[in-house]
Amino acid sequence: MPYYLWNMFAWLFGILWVIIVCFMTIGLLRSGHATRISERAGERAVATGAGFTVVILFALIIMSSAIAREISIVQSQPNELKVRVTGHQWWWEFQYQDDPPDHLLTTANELHIPIGRPVRMEVRSGDVIHSFWVPSLSPKIDAIPDHFNEIVFQANQVGTYRGQCAEFCGLQHAHMGFLVVAETPAVFQNWLNHQLEPSQESLSTEEQQGRHVFLSSPCVVCHTVRGTSAFGGTAPDLTHLASRTTIGAALLSNTPGNLSGWITDSQRVKPGTQMPPIDIASQDMQPLLSYLDALK
């Protein structure tokens, strides 16, 4: 609904701008030909303009209030999906708070939601102030350290929606994006069930070699891969990394080439990010990429 309100405001103000420019142009063209109008005619023109303005403002207030009321009605529905959002420099952590407790799922930078169901977002920050914003689905809400803000929105159409940090939060603020994937309830439930599973155990020889490279690298200090000895909690959970369409907070497509460049020198791709360059031997890179590609 905020999207429709935005379109309505944009069209209305665009039309008004064109009308004002037309009147200004006419006035300038006639500036050399003075015409005298009566005082009464001038008063009527001013009154007409003022009345027109008041009508437009009241119409906008009524439309805004109606949209706000619809949003508040969505917030009161009992079947909402609860997701805790934490903004980091510079990525987004999503933790699904669905019952029972063993359905607690943490993922990063890609939020999957079912259509036709309200989603309650508990938004906070792990460092500085960020702002959670999905222009096509929800208004902005600040992510503040040690404080929860809440927002409820609902997607009614299947699709992928772009989200963005809307509060300047440092060097890579502009590259702190995420994706919201709205799916049918059945597809979402299948996705959720798969994401709750640990990492794949059946691996090829090359993938097993890559897992050894991963577990013996500094990656395990920050990242988690459920089902392995990697339990780092300060960086994105990689358990199902290969199922995501992007890396680097929606900065790059999730391809082997981009992933290789990100691992070896993330600072070149995203200067100032908290991930340091990782020194991986050239003969170990392909097995590592094969293992990461198996984390579907």
Structure description:
This protein has helices at residues 2-29, 39-75, 185-195, 205-215, 219-222, 256-264, 266-269, 282-293, and strands at residues 81-88, 91-96, 105-108, 110-114, 119-125, 130-133, 141-143, 149-153, 159-165, 177-183, 246-247, 252-253. With 296 residues, the protein is α+β, with helices and mostly antiparallel strands. A five-stranded mixed sheet has the order 3-2-1-5-8. Helix 4 (205-215) crosses helix 8. The radius of gyration is 26 Å and the shape is elongated.
How do you describe this structure in short?
39% of the residues lie in helices and 20% in strands. The protein is of the alpha+beta class.
Strand order of the largest sheet: 3-2-1-5-8
Return the domain count.
Answer: 3
Strand content range = 15-25%
Q: How would you sum up the global shape?
A: elongated
Q: What's the CATH class label of the largest domain?
A: Mainly Beta
Class by helix and strand content? alpha+beta
Question: What's the helix and strand layout?
Answer:
Elements: H1 2-29, H2 39-75, E1 81-88, E2 91-96, E3 105-108, E4 110-114, E5 119-125, E6 130-133, E7 141-143, E8 149-153, E9 159-165, E10 177-183, H3 185-195, H4 205-215, H5 219-222, E11 246-247, E12 252-253, H6 256-264, H7 266-269, H8 282-293
Parallel strand pairs: 1-5, 4-10
Antiparallel strand pairs: 1-2, 2-3, 5-8, 6-7, 6-9, 9-10, 11-12
Helix pairs in contact: 4-8
